Amino acid sequence: MGVTWLLATCCFALGCSQQFIMGIPSDIAASLGVSVAAVGQLMTAFSLASAVGTPILLAGTSHKLTPRSQMLLGLGLMVLGLIAFSFISNYVTLLAARVVMGVGNGTFTSTAMAIAATSAKPGHQASALSNVSLGFSAAMVLGMPIARTVAPFIGWHALYGILSAVAVLIAFAIFKLVPNSGREMLTAEKPPTLKERFSPLANRTIVFALVVMVLINLGFSSFYTYVTPFLENTFGTADHTVSMVLLISSLMSIVGIKGSGWLADHTGCKRTATAALCVQILSLSVLGAYHEVGIVVWVAMCVWVTSDWSFNPSQNLMLTRLAENNASLVLGLSGSALQLGSALGSAAGGIFIETAPVGFLPFLSVIAIFIALMIELFFVFRGMKPSIYSSQA
Length: 393
Description:
The chain is 83% helix and 0% strand. By secondary structure, it is mainly α. Helix 3 packs across helix 5 (91-119) and helix 5 (91-119) packs antiparallel against helix 6. The radius of gyration is 20 Å and the shape is globular.
């Protein structure tokens, strides 16, 4: 349990490194002398590097490093990037730092999940994974409000300085407390090669399901990366109002995660995933159409976040059932698909707000999610046996 919560704490710190940027994009833009859209591209660099670099680094080090060493390698890369954000105000340098951080974050997260599952007692593996994931959920809930509250007093450089110090302390704790197990794996069982990691892509239905994951996170990231300027456009720049909307709506991610599990168990993955997509389209349409009405934006934000976080658990469950014995590999691909979608979404959202009013940004997400719904209905569901998405599976 101690190891699990240590990993969850680290995931919270790493998650905050992503959320801080989205909470104070205007402050960072002014400091660097660039536009808010350019700050959004820091998110693009992070996500794209994570999607592409993580499987390559994991495949290249699996036969040389134990899981703990891989995790510390990823954490070390994150620390380097965080230190850069603590002192440097050059945009190009920070863009490179985000690439390093993206690879480090993906490597750490993938390995931490594996260690959490293997170190947990039999029958408690799912709980261990859930607890580690809770770190990222907590970062989503608290990261942006913390940044908006603290940055005006100490500056955004200091915020990242604190994160880098926390990451160093956690790295030391991991080195001391996490067993360096897995050395026997280096010689006993050959780890999957890069080609083997992508082997589930031979299944056409899996490919379509992963495309849906890309589109869903494209829709999420294109709006959420720039959600602060969107809310400031609605409520003004009053920190307490925007921070409260971010906090309350982010809390709904927990409702989405927990509720989707119950719904999938009782109604099946197909109905849960379809309902989540439809509610996303409806709530985002309301956000775009009524972006000047504060109470409507507040309610629609809560509904949207709940429905967005309701989708992934059902989709991942269907992916694992499709992959059968390659479940761990397909979940790795799912993570890369999410990061790729995040990269594309941050880029697309940045282009949008440079050419159109930020209040209409949710409509960009509506387009992506509508396409995802069509692919899900006509290509994913039709390619699966009913037992795969049944609640009885």
